[in-house]
Write a structure and sequence with these properties.
This protein has 122 residues and is an alpha+beta fold. It contains four helices and four strands; from the N terminus they run H-E-E-E-H-H-E-H. GO terms for molecular function: 3'-tRNA processing endoribonuclease activity; ribonuclease P activity; tRNA binding.
Length: 122
Amino acid sequence: MNQEFGKQERLKSKKLIDSLFIEGKSIKSFPLKLVYTSIEEVEGRVLKTGVSVPKKLIKTAVKRNRIKRLMREVFRKNKYLVTSDLSSSHAFMFIYISREEMPYDKLEASMIKLLKNFSHKN
């Protein structure tokens, strides 16, 4: 089981991010929201993933960065839930929607629920 979250798996393209928010579908599981869309990728099945914590909800950069690190780690540990039965390439954006900082176990439970819901829908 590959538990890396390398450069090729990160969502960085502005064009791709814009199309994600225009055409994408979303699933919520408090305190996370998953926005996803199918993408055209040359090299087989790829999962491009990004994380976001709005400045409007979490004011200090230190807390925002900690939450983003936790979200990336939780995804890295649990991405096997979607990569095993992925039929095409997708772009994911995980958005934090709570005003309070959540502990790792609550983030992990929410992420697992989102990834299972996504794999059932596809």
